[in-house]
Amino acid sequence: xxESIVFRDHMHCINDKYSFDTFLEERxxxxxxxxxxxxxxIPCDPCRNSCFKNAISFDKSITSIPKxxxxxxxxxxxxxxxxxxxxxxxxxxxxxxxxxxVSLPYEFLPLPNKxxxxxxxxxxxxxLCNGEIYKVKTSSNFDCTAVVTIKIPKEFIMEAxxxxxx
Length: 166
Ligand code: SF4
Ligand code: SF4
Fold this sequence. Notes:
The chain is α+β, with helices and mostly antiparallel strands. It contains four helices and nine strands; from the N terminus they run ααβαββαββββββ. The chain has one domain. It starts with a helix and ends with a strand. The site of one iron/sulfur cluster (SF4) has 12 residues, from α3. One iron/sulfur cluster (SF4) binds next to α4.
C-alpha cells in the first residue's frame, strides 16, 4: 500500500538506528510510542511545543515535517490532543501477548465509554478488526480533544487509525 511505504520511509528518517521491523519489535513492544503521520509541509508546530520531553523537532523551519526522537518519547499522548491535524497516534504493543493499544484523537460527543465495543478502521476507513474502548482521557489542557485508547489484536496497531462504535 502506497501510504505504508510513505510511513516506512518517514520512520526510517526519524532514527536511522531502527529499521522498520526492529522498530516495531523492539520499541513498541516495550511500551507506548508516538506515531506521527504528518506528511504535509505546513507552518504548524503545536506538537513540538506540547512535548515536555522535547522529543519532536523540525529540521529547518516549522514548515518542515516533524521528526520524533524515539529515545525521548514516553508515549504520554499529550501531542495527540494538541495536534490540530489529528495526525499523531500512540501505539503500544506491550499490553499483552496478543493485544495492543492504539490512542487516537477524538472530537465527537458524547465520548465513548470504557469497555464499549468498536470496530477499528484503517487510514481509509476500512474495517480491520473488533476491539473495545480501553481508556478515555480528557483534560482542560486538551483544547476539547479527548484521547481515546482502543484495545485491538496486536497485529493491527500500526494500521488502526480510527474506530466505529458498535
Ligand atoms: S507522546 Fe508525549 S513524549 Fe511522546 S512526542 Fe508526544 S508529547 Fe512527546
Ligand atoms: S501539530 Fe500535528 S499537523 Fe502540526 S506539524 Fe505537528 S504533527 Fe503536523
